[in-house]
Amino acid sequence: MFYCGLIYAHPANPKRDYARSMEYLKKASEGYAKGAFTEQANVMLSIMKENKELNRTVERSKTSLEESNRLIEKLKALIEASKKVDIEIEDKKRESVR
User: Fold this and answer.
1) In terms of Cα–Cα distance, which of 24, 31, 29 is closest to 7?
2) Long-range CB pairs of 39-45, under 8 A, 24+ apart, other chains included
3) What number is the average pLDDT over the span 5-26?
4) Domain contains 6
5) Angle 78-84-85 (CA atoms, 0-180°, nearest 5)?
6) Which of 19, 22, 27, 71 is most buried, by the most CB atoms less than 10 A from its CB?
7) Residue 59 covered by a domain
8) Is 0.85 surpassed by the pTM of this model?
9) 56-82 pLDDT tens trace
10) Which domain holds residue 26?
11) Nearest 10 degrees: CA dihedral of 68, 73, 77, 83?
12) Into how many domains does the chain fold?
């Protein structure tokens, strides 16, 4: 079971499947009390769980960054529009003074 978990998690495996790898590692960890690979399976599982959570955090950060960039672009457009309005107001003030 342990080796199946490693094979499915191996980066060189074109059919890599972390979910299936975790299933095999859980079986290796729980199925054989104090087996030869129980501790290694537990370590691999904890690393894979942490990696999964970090990937979620990265995805949330990317989404947040994209939203922030969209907001920045909207605000830049609003600033430009405000500048144009200010220029028009100043031009009208100058014309009224003449």
Assistant:
1) 24
2) 40/2, 41/1, 41/2, 41/5, 44/5, 44/6, 44/9
3) 93
4) yes
5) 90
6) 22
7) yes
8) no
9) 999 999 999 999 999 999 999 999 999
10) 2-73
11) 70
12) 1
